[in-house]
Amino acid sequence: MHSPGGNLLWDCISLLDDKTIAEVRAHGGIRAIAISHPHFYSSMVEWSERFGAQIFLHAADRQWVMRESPRIQFWEGTTLSLWDGLTLINCGGHFEGGTVLHWPAASRGCGSKGALLTGDIIQVVEDRRYVSFMRSYPNLIPLGAAAIHHIIEMIEPFLFEQLYGAWWQANILSDAKAAVAQSAQRYLRAIAP
Hints:
The protein is α/β, with parallel strands linked by helices. Helices cover 23% and strands 24% of the residues. The protein has helices spanning 18-26, 44-51, 145-155, 176-191; strands at residues 8-10, 32-34, 54-58, 72-75, 79-81, 87-90, 99-103, 115-119, 123-124, 131-132, 134-136, 141-142, 162-165, 171-172. α3 packs antiparallel against α4.
């Protein structure tokens, strides 16, 4: 994401080739990397070394780091303020250190109130009007009610109009905060005994 104080790479992909490096440099490089959960840790050190970027990971997921680096900064607590209003929010859920990113300056047209980048901590579903929550996607294990309440509590203070999920076009581009709240209520009703 582009930001006046420096660009942030969110949930880096594994491929890092010369074409990708040139494209990223053409857009101002990378100041830091922030990652939602360990499934995106694979090439974070290579990305950080190539661009001289710091890596922000929640300390609750330290055990999943397979390659140590002095560029990794483990943070604790519920939020970490970065620059230009960017904030990392520990929601837990999918992993104990599951993190989302609030980007208040995101705009996709007039009147934008910011965006939440969620990886699959908050998963946009196929119809793009709702989200869902899972402990384990491969095993189809849902999160329990306490975890859902915690996620909603953690994002409540933040304004956002858009939500960007883990996969291509897995986005909610308007009224996303309401969609998350409605989805949580729907989910909680579905898992109620």
